[in-house]
Amino acid sequence: xxxxxxxxxxxxxxxxxxxxxxxxxxxxxxxxxxxxxxxxxxxxxxxxxxxxxxxxxxxxxxxxxxxxxxxxxxxxxxxxxxxxxxxxxxxxxxxxxxxxxxxxxxxxxxxxxxxxxxxxxxxxxxxxxxxxxxxxxxxxxxxxxxxxxxxxxxxxxxxxxxxxxxxxxxxxxxxxxxxxxxxxxxxxxxxxxxxxxxxxxxx
Length: 203
What we know:
Elements: E1 11-16, H1 23-33, E2 37-38, E3 45-51, E4 67-68, E5 71-80, H2 85-103, H3 110-126, E6 131-140, E7 145-148, H4 153-167, E8 170-173, H5 176-186, H6 190-194
Antiparallel strand pairs: 1-7, 1-8, 2-3, 3-5, 4-5, 5-6, 6-7
Helix pairs in contact: 2-3
């Protein structure tokens, strides 16, 4: 669910690192560098990148539409296409028989079969409707914190990698222990955290 929905799961992330030169120019360049585009290389993903948080089909960001005061509001759009194994098996058998008949071979080599399978998979992907997933991200540039609309570890890894490539900055999940360190550091009581020991809540 997106941030504009009635309910959403949110993960808080610390933004680590520094941007050299003009901050907002670098942010704009990073967003446009990482804007959604189709992926030509073979694989499951067929498209990925930043899109408008209000409309995932808009990735032009006209007039810096991602800006909300000192916040940067984006969506990470990920399109994937997975070919059903049975469909791939049927098409591979059909095309293998056709290739054997044309070449006069009795059996395809492992390299031929692998290449044929890859070609069929990519051809089938182009004929399928991809699954579209959209994950919202709001970056509070004044506090170096980002809010991400997913708790999935796999999705977090994806957005972390993309954020790093676009802005050269690292996203670090603010787990309870790290948040406690921050709060106690403000009160000069951080040393007490190191002496804490786990307790069993079972009677």
